[in-house]
């Protein structure tokens, strides 16, 4: 009776692929096989996500590093462990060109940073870059204003020609 109720409650696409003469226990095992996770596929997808991640300037560098660390944690659960040194290098590789000077600075140092140290330094660097970007934007807008004033001033000083 339970088997009949279960068979009626599942989609017909599954019904055709399950053997007819099974009992309830075997029926549930066969259904479970349809939804079983493939550990290798999950590890491959997670690793691909980790390696192809790129930091986009919209957002927070701390959240980005935490997301990469989270993916590394998932890989550890799947028995595919990456060292913290490798994760630090993956993070540095994934940064945009604006962080180039920071990456060179890291590579010239003898000391290796932990993930937390890298995060702390990158947060400071991100704040510095945002501050510099704001200052350069302010300089650009003030220089544009000066150009407009000069152009307006020279146009007023030009003598008007009389019509004859």
Q: Your description of this structure?
A:
- The chain is built from 8 helices and no strands.
- Helix 4 runs antiparallel to helix 5.
- It is elongated and about 100 Å long.
- The N and C termini lie far apart (111 Å).
- Pfam families: Retrotran_gag_2.
Outline type: elongated
Strand content: under 5%
Number of strands: 0
Number of helical segments with 4 or more residues: 8
Mean pLDDT: 82
Q: What would you call the quaternary organization?
A: single chain
- What is the helix content? over 70%
Q: Gyration radius, to the nearest Å?
A: 31 Å
Separation, N- and C-terminal Cα atoms? 111 Å
Derived structural class: mainly alpha
What about the largest sheet?
none
The ordered H/E elements are HHHHHHHH
Could you name the ranges where pLDDT drops below 50 across 5 or more consecutive residues? none
Briefly, what is this?
The protein is mainly alpha-helical and 164 residues long. 71% of the residues lie in helices and 0% in strands.
């Amino acid at each position: 009776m339970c088997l009949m109720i279960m068979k009626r409650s599942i989609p017909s696409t599954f019904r055709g692929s399950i053997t007819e003469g099974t009992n309830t226990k075997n029926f549930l095992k066969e259904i479970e096989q349809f939804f079983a996770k493939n550990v290798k596929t999950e590890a491959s997808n997670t690793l691909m996500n980790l390696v192809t991640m790129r930091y986009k300037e919209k957002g927070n560098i701390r959240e980005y590093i935490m997301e990469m660390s989270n993916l590394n944690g998932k890989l550890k659960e799947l028995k595919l462990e990456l060292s913290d040194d490798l994760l630090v290098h993956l993070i540095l590789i994934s940064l945009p060109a604006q962080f180039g000077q920071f990456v060179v600075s890291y590579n010239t140092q003898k000391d290796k940073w932990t993930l937390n140290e890298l995060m702390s330094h990158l947060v400071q660097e991100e704040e510095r870059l945002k501050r510099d970007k704001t200052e350069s934007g302010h300089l650009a807008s003030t220089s544009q204003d000066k150009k407009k004033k000069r152009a307006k001033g020279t146009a007023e000083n030009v003598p008007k020609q009389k019509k004859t």
